[in-house]
Amino acid sequence: MKISSIRVENYRSLKSVQIDTSRFTIFVGQNNHGKTNLFEAIEWFYQAKSSPEDYFFNRDTGNRIVVEITFDEVEETDIEKLTTEASKTKIRGILGESKSFMVQKTTTDHKRKYFVDGVDKGNPTGLDTAINEFIPKLEYVNTRIRLDDVSKYKDKNPIGLMLSGVLTAIVENSAEYLGFKEQFAKLFDSPDSEVRQELDKISAQVEIYLQKQFPDGTKVKFGVNPPQFGDLLKSFETTVDDGIETKAEDKGDGMQRAIMLSIIQAFADYRKAQTGGGSFLFMIDEAELHLHPSAQRALKRALIDICATDQVMVNTHSSVLVVEDSPQQKLFRVEKHQGITSISEVDALEKIDVVFDLLGGSPTDLLLPRNFLIVEGRSEYVFLSEVIKRFYPNEFKGIKILFSGGDIDMQEGDLLAVHQLFKPLAGSENPIYKDKAVIVIDKPNDTQQNKYQQFQAGYPYLFANNQVHELDTETLEKYYPVGFKKEPGEVPNEQKVAYAREVARSITKEQFEGEMPKLFAALNAAKVKGFPMAA
Fold first, then answer.
1. Residue 478 lies in a domain
2. pTM (2 d.p.)
3. Same domain membership, residue 326 and residue 221
4. Distance CA 138, CA 343 (A)
5. How many domains does the chain have?
6. Residue 308 contacts residue 272 (beta carbons within 8 Å)
7. Which stretches within 278-377 are classed as H helix?
């Protein structure tokens, strides 16, 4: 069983989002764009019995919060793992022959409603208990958890509970352990136990002394509670010896985060060998936090392993966790505009932009793509991006288009901006894109001739190596195919990007190749000169 889709309405910045999840789902986006809000909405679905005002979209309690989660791929083995026959009967009764069901929770009453094949099944008596055991258990690792919290098992920290559960499951089939458990119960719980009788005597004696301090008739009770057997495997200690032995909870955040995620990795190993038990949903906020890139890769491998039996969702700013693909992986971009968060799936063509943004949006951070095509303005960037998506998603895969400012940011094409963008690619100490990167420029007008000559003098090899492709016109709008051409001034600066997108979505492949040959040639040059695609 796994979660196949999630719909959220009116939870903080999530006015209305719906996503189809996979076994391993990654969310990327800038800070304060709503990634954590999604995780907390899922946590709200699992746990909340009330909702403070700041949970509601625009802090308006009239905006009813709705979270709907669809569970799919239900198998008979999932039902058989339930601990009671009553729960099995409840689940079979509501599902019938269906392999999926949807659960809805709202702020109307904070109770769940169940839907099977679109039919509202309500919330029959006793079903919640069965469902709580049936659906994947939530383990939410947020950025606020520290290792000393994990050690305080009485706080019921989810990581501590998870590890104690693993330890218990490992030993619970041991005959010696079962014998000890039985003896423990006799020792502390049985009224015939000598230990229990002595504890009761102490309780009675303390009660006598306490009662003397309340002569007004107040009744005071004092009892020595027996130790809880379940707590025996809930106390952990990790020490680090780097010259001086120190408790791990006294170390820095990096060590603490590594240990907590190591618990999850150990859990993954255990789960792979486990045949019984329910499934888990792991949500890890900023999974890369404090981890070296090599540790991030190891963590991702462990999380992928977990997905054989369980489901994982991570929020991240790390390209390391994003760049490698997995058949079980889906990638989503989280963006906020005017206070409203949107979540959209990222396809293979868009992934290169996501990774580039994660690296800081500058080629000096990491020379990632097979090649770069540098254009002057955002209009060219949008136009070519749309054309590639429509006509050449495979042929020009791995070509990263960069724009240097141009018609939106500077109100005019600027060869010096192109120069500044190209310099990190070809002017560094290790210019691995020196003979690969391709540049597209508008035909220089009279006022730009001086800058154009400076650019030619600075990079003569670019022109000799056919890396500079110059349009026949002074603007992109004038270079569009017949029926779309516009003279200077016909399209206001603030509308050029929208018009570029409109043209790219309207023209045919034949129009692009036949009537815009310089741009088509530039794309082909970027492909031919670029690094080979990885196998």
1. yes
2. 0.61
3. no
4. 22
5. 3
6. yes
7. 293-306, 319-323, 348-358
